[in-house]
Amino acid sequence: MKRMTLTLGAILLVSAAAHAQVTVSDAWVRGTVPQQKATGAFMHIAAEQDVRLIAGASPVAGVVEIHEMAMEGNVMKMRELKGGLPIAKGATAELKPGGYHVMLMDLKQALKGGEAVPVTLTFEDAASKKTFTRELMAPVKALGAATSAPHSGQHKH
Amino acid sequence: MPPVIAHHLPRRAALARLGGIVLAALGGASLVACDKFAQATGQRAGFRGIDITGADYGRDFRLTDVDGRERTLADYRGKLVLLYFGFVQCPDVCPTALARAAEVKRLLGPDGDKLQVIFVTVDPDRDTPEMLRQYMAAFDPSFVALRGDTERLKATAAEFKVYYKQVPTGSSYTMDHTALSYVFDTQGRLRLVLRHEQTAQDYAHDLALLLRQPATARPA
Question: Which ipTM value was assigned to this complex?
């Protein structure tokens, strides 16, 4: 496990050096049961330039979209962010339960805890309009595993 | 701090400390008294969720479990029931709600066995019994998943004032849905609504409070 973490860290470092504009960290994917066709990937994305996360891809999913979850009253609504997710220079976007996620759909296999899923993210540089990609391996957290609770602000520890 | 040092404390500080202890003790006593009073009068103080005791909706359901058995609320009499509407292809709120429910059960300790978590799918077209069985087992094998055909689901959602709607996305669709948890007491009466934003601690607090109320307490 430790070795895997180190390797992952090394991959992220290498990719960060190759494209300094964004750094992705703490990525994870929620596990699924067989026949389940959709799940979410969560992560932190730190931007050194104004960028926009515009697309994603993964060999385990037929369709990948950038989504926002929002509670309206007590109704959960989930929508694709049509224009992508803008991240300002110096800011870190938190893709986490209760907010944004990378939606993996048309899953080709069940995702089990302990595995890792390759994900490619496509960004657009706000100034030059050039696109670039970032590749990462997102570890799968078992479906039933506790993940961050909504609004856990006063219940850290 | 060795106890002997306390003798050297200035008298005022010692008195202040004693005062603090007395106040704390009084506070504790009055909390107990409030609780007793609440029990005696049937008043329901201190819930962190929304108290809807006496509501004229959410009275019952008639749905099918993953083994094909028809289930109604009466099947769970004697247990607290935490009822949640959701769907399996849900990346965020539903697994968060179920993971929280599993945590709530743990937080209740020995009383965890008195809690029955029920997940009603708002997406019966895609959520097959086998998928629901495995999905529940991932969180807690004791959790029950129920489904109904389109008409049954519609009737159940109406009974609980639950909103759900298919929304196309990608090559498929997602579901907008009410993300509240409904709590029935051990007598099968709908008592509380808990919100998605609340923590496992909030949920466990209210469920423990419900368990402490005598079974004969009548809603005011």
Answer: 0.79
